[in-house]
Amino acid sequence: MAFASASGYNNLPNGNFSPVIYSQKVQKAFRKNSVVEDVTNTDYMGEIANYGDSVKIIKEPDITINKLERGTSVAKQDLSDADFSLIIDQAQYFMFSIDDIEAAHSHVNFMDLATDRAAYKLSDHYDREVLGYLSGYVRNTGDTAWIINPSANGTKADSGAGSDELLVANKLDITDFGGSDLGGSADADTHALTSVPLAAGGGSGAITSPLAVLNRMARKMDEANVDQDGRWFVADPVFYELLMDENSKFINNDFAGGQDAGDVLRNGKVVSGLIRGFRVYKSNNLPFFGTGPGTTASAGSEENFGVVVSGHDSAIATAQQLAKTESYRDTASFADIVRGMQLYGRKILRPEAIMTANYNLA
User: Fold this and answer.
1) 84 Cβ contact list (under 8 Å, min separation 6)
2) Where does the pLDDT of residue 180 fall: very low under 50, low under 70, confident under 90, or very high at 90 and above?
3) Which of 5-19, 58-72, 145-159, 250-264 has the lowest mean pLDDT?
4) Predicted confidence band at 24 (pLDDT cuts at 50, 70, 90)?
5) Residues 32, 34, 38, CA angle at the centre, nearest 5°?
6) How many CA atoms are closer than 13 Å to the CA of 310, on its beta-carbon side?
7) ∠ CA(127), CA(130), CA(131), 5° rounding?
8) Percent above pLDDT 70 for the chain
9) Structural contact between residues 308 and 173, judged by C-beta atoms closer than 8 angstroms
10) How far is 98 from 119, CA to CA, in rounded Å?
11) How many angstroms separate the Cα of 246 from the Cα of each of 198, 209, 216, 251, 261?
């Protein structure tokens, strides 16, 4: 009972005149935005939807151009048929039950509530796992922290890539902006690359502006002949706060034109226009280490930082082979069981079109 009684007042002493009312309006937890569907391609999903656990992808053969002079005896070139594989090897599930008595007496539909939450959790897990993979990271065995991806998923698209299937030259760190590497030894808590300290408008030494990171990624893609159309960039809220501090017009939807003017986040997309040629997305599912990118370190850090990533629509493929939800009667009790599973694969196809940057606040 919410109301106190005066000393010596004994009328209806147990407070049963005031019943507890349970609202039928359930407070749902906030949902994170999913961006993977917007930044990966599904060109191979149809080929693996019904059978098989891998797709062999043939690489375009390279051609050698030779100088021709009058009377030159020409020689034919043997074409290569190199390939790599997209493997369906990622799976997760959920399962819960609702007892008949619980269902009959409950004032809310827990079956629908739990099924809706489970569908979101599968989608969120998929988004986090794929974003981590294309950034070069996976979760550890206990799912308590991010670690560098220790093994390639099938055959690497580029033999020069590391175990994370990414190119070292495309991983931006403090040395790319005039700073010095801290030189720590890589282990579970220390990264081999020193993060870039960021501040709105940049600063002294290696302190860099967030826009400079976008500019450098765009330049490196230009140098790799990555198509202008289809480029994207994904960052966390800390990075976008810095970008807003630098110039709010970059990501203020009030400055967008046409029917999208004033739109808020859709699928994590920040604004309908482009910034430095990139579609820009915001996500809380990107990898981070230690206390994350909000940690202040003017000389960079190898222990506390966040990761931002850019790429091209053709750079990463995803394919979902099975996504199923079913319900059935429990044979051991009077209850309905609901369970679901998701089976999918992901593959980095063009590592030259993926750029990452480790950063923290300056």
Assistant:
1) 56, 57, 59, 154, 155, 156, 157, 347, 349
2) very high
3) 250-264
4) low
5) 155
6) 27
7) 80
8) 85
9) no
10) 17
11) 11, 8, 17, 11, 21
Q: Which residue do the tokens 């017009």 mark? A: 249
User: For residue 14, what is the DSSP state?
Assistant: T
Q: Are 161 and 202 in contact (CB under 8 A)?
A: no
Question: What is the Cα–Cα distance from 110 to 101, expressed in whole angstroms?
Answer: 12
Write the CA distances from 129 to 35, 55, 286, integer angstroms.
12, 20, 9
Task: Say which residue the tokens 């999208």 belong to.
Answer: 260
> pLDDT value at position 351?
95
CA-CA distance, 342 to 178, in Å (whole number)?
Answer: 45
* Cα Rg of the chain (Å, integer): 26
User: What residue spans of the chain are helical by DSSP H?
Assistant: 36-39, 45-48, 100-105, 110-135, 210-223, 237-246
CB atoms closer than 10 angstroms to residue 344: 20
pTM, two decimal places: 0.83
Q: Could you give the CA distance from residue 243 to residue 294 in angstroms, rounded to a whole number? A: 14
Entry field: residues in the chain: 362
Task: Tell me how far CA of residue 160 lies from CA of 155, 166, 360, in angstroms.
Answer: 12, 9, 28
Q: Are 194 and 181 a contacting pair, CB within 8 Å?
A: yes
Other beta carbons within 10 Å of 114:
15
pLDDT at 214 over 50: yes
Q: Which of 287, 14, 251, 267 is nearest to 130 (CA)?
A: 287
Q: Which two tokens stand for residue 197?
A: 């300290």
Burial code (b: 16+ CB inside 10 Å, e: under 16) for 298-324 equals bbbbbbbbbbbbbbbbebbbbbbbeee
